């Protein structure tokens, strides 16, 4: 797409990103995390469980899990085998149970049983990486510290020409340069919604896409 008079590559990218956000907000006004949660701890646990698992399946598991385990202390004191069975349908249940118990123990001993509100403190918890921390900060605390990059965000951002990288951290840095900070949390939701509904992995529905006239990968 040619630059307009007096426009630089950076300003052109920012303007196009703003247009992408505007169109996707009109298309998906309800865009938010599709994990069910009612507290920062529940969101943290659900996000850990969502690794290599669909949100739909996680929500099925947490419907009973959250009634059984109501505090960090409950998770910390849980029998490893029992917790594994409780989360088994989400896959990789042994590693996830270990991460959840370790996370809960750290929250108890280092944070008075409350989920911390900073990136530095969150990523120091067992089983919590930057992506999980971004989910919790942005959705539970309204803190725009970064942009969640999952498989949908990576695919859609690449197809839209917003990044040329495949590494999540490099993609996040690219997106943070063109997406306004106050939009960081919602931006990932918009791309996830679009990736699940239209810009699908195997066959993108370009003919139904509200971005097909400004997307360099459009098949229309």
Automatic annotation (TrEMBL):
Annotated HhH-GPD domain residues = 49-197
Query: Which UniProt keywords are listed?
Result: 4Fe-4S, DNA damage, DNA repair, DNA-binding, Endonuclease, Glycosidase, Hydrolase, Iron, Iron-sulfur, Lyase, Metal-binding, Nuclease
Q: Which GO terms describe its biological process?
A: base-excision repair, AP site formation
Please name the PROSITE patterns in this protein's record: ENDONUCLEASE_III_1 (PS00764), ENDONUCLEASE_III_2 (PS01155)
| Gene Ontology molecular function terms on file | 4 iron, 4 sulfur cluster binding; class I DNA-(apurinic or apyrimidinic site) endonuclease activity; DNA binding; DNA N-glycosylase activity; metal ion binding
Task: Cite the source lineage.
Answer: Bacteria, Bacillati, Actinomycetota, Rubrobacteria, Rubrobacterales
- HAMAP family documented for this protein: Nth
Q: Please give the family membership noted in the entry.
A: Belongs to the Nth/MutY family.
Annotated binding of [4Fe-4S] cluster, by residue: 199, 206, 209, 215
Catalyzed chemical reaction(s): 2'-deoxyribonucleotide-(2'-deoxyribose 5'-phosphate)-2'-deoxyribonucleotide-DNA = a 3'-end 2'-deoxyribonucleotide-(2,3-dehydro-2,3-deoxyribose 5'-phosphate)-DNA + a 5'-end 5'-phospho-2'-deoxyribonucleoside-DNA + H(+)
Is the keyword Nuclease assigned to this protein? yes
Name of this protein: Endonuclease III
Q: What class of enzyme is it?
A: lyase
Per the record, the gene is: nth
Describe its function.
DNA repair enzyme that has both DNA N-glycosylase activity and AP-lyase activity. The DNA N-glycosylase activity releases various damaged pyrimidines from DNA by cleaving the N-glycosidic bond, leaving an AP (apurinic/apyrimidinic) site. The AP-lyase activity cleaves the phosphodiester bond 3' to the AP site by a beta-elimination, leaving a 3'-terminal unsaturated sugar and a product with a terminal 5'-phosphate.
User: Which EC number(s) does the record attach to this protein?
Assistant: 4.2.99.18
- Which Gene3D superfamilies does the entry link to? Helix-hairpin-Helix base-excision DNA repair enzymes (C-terminal), Hypothetical protein, domain 2
Superkingdom of origin: Bacteria
How the cofactor is bound: the record states: Binds 1 [4Fe-4S] cluster.
A single Pfam family it belongs to is EndIII_4Fe-2S
């Amino acid at each position: 797409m040619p630059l307009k008079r007096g426009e630089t590559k950076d300003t052109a990218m920012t303007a196009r990103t703003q247009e992408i956000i505007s169109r996707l907000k009109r298309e998906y006004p309800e865009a938010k995390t599709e994990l069910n949660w009612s507290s920062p701890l529940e969101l943290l646990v659900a996000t850990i469980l969502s690794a290599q698992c669909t949100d739909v399946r996680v929500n099925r598991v947490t419907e009973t899990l959250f009634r059984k385990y109501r505090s960090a202390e409950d998770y910390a004191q849980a029998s490893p085998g029992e917790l594994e069975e409780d989360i088994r349908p989400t896959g990789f249940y042994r590693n996830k149970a270990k991460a959840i118990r370790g996370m809960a123990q750290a929250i108890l001993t280092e944070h008075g049983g409350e989920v911390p509100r900073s990136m530095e403190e969150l990523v120091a918890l067992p089983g919590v990486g930057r992506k999980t921390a971004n989910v919790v900060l942005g959705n539970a605390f309204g803190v725009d510290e970064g942009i969640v990059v999952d498989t949908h965000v990576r695919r859609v951002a690449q197809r839209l020409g917003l990044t040329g990288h495949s590494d999540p951290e490099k993609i996040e840095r690219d997106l943070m340069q063109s997406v306004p900070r106050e939009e960081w949390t919602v931006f990932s939701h918009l791309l996830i919604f679009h990736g699940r509904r239209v810009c699908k992995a195997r066959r993108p529905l370009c003919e139904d896409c509200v971005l097909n006239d400004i997307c360099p990968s459009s098949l229309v």
